[in-house]
Amino acid sequence: MIPIGVLVSGRGSNLQAILRAVQRGYIRGAGVTVVISNRPAVRALEIARRANVPTMVIESAQFSGSRQEYDALLVDALERHGITGEGGLVLLAGFDRILSPFFVLHFRNRVMNIHPALLPSFTGLHAQEQALDYGVKIAGCTVHLVSPEVDAGPVIVQKSVRVREDDTPETLAARILREEHKAYPEAVKLFVEGRLKVDGRKVRVASRK
User: Region 125-131: what's the mean pLDDT?
Assistant: First the structure.
């Protein structure tokens, strides 16, 4: 079984989508072995506990060390739950910290994130507001491998939604979120099945054997 560690900071809806995909057998041969939050008492932790998944809180707000020192604590916690640089998968599910190059390179091509825009457009915060301000007709979400640069890693899966004339950032975000809950399990499934081949900036999806 491939161990999966999930880093969270908030409501945990994408975590819930991953857990359901495992429970229903859509994702086979893998399981979430730990959920780690940098914030205490967030909903994502309760979702994990209800699913009988071990949880940890490594608070970042009061941490006085460097970003790399904090990330070293994350690496240690993940490795104690079977996720290493040679095996396993790390998922960012609403994790509100930028990971250091130390962390990303330690788990090279084993860290995924989901972003509520069609990368490379509208990186960073407030992606839906950026999309509406720009006047795009199509928006969406992207699951990508994490690189040391923010929102710049190779793309794995993208899902799109049409932008409506009366959309607000909130209504657009709600429709994109529904697509996130499809895209993230799909990307994890492809990883677990060994079908993702990283070729420079591109992620090629191999056919089923």
Answer: 97
Q: How would DSSP label each residue in the chain?
A: -EEEEEEESS--HHHHHHHHHHHTTSS-SEEEEEEEESSTT-HHHHHHHHTT--EEE---TT--S-HHHHHHHHHHHHHHTT--SSS-EEEEES--SPPPHHHHHHTTT-EEEEESS-TTSS-SS-HHHHHHHHT-SEEEEEEEE--SSTT-SPEEEEEEEEPPTT--HHHHHHHHHHHHHHHHHHHHHHHHTT-EEEETTEEEEPPP-
pLDDT value, residue 208: 80
Known catalytic residues?
115
User: Which domains does the chain show, CATH number per domain?
Assistant: 1-108 (3.40.50.170), 114-209 (3.40.50.170)
62-73 per-position pLDDT tens digit: 899 999 999 999
Q: How far apart are CA 149 and CA 61, in angstroms?
A: 22
pLDDT band, residue 209 (cuts 50/70/90)? low
Integer Cα distance of 173 and 167 in angstroms: 9
Q: How confident is the model at residue 4 (pLDDT cuts 50, 70, 90)?
A: very high
Pairing of strands 2-8, 89-93: parallel
pTM over 0.85: yes
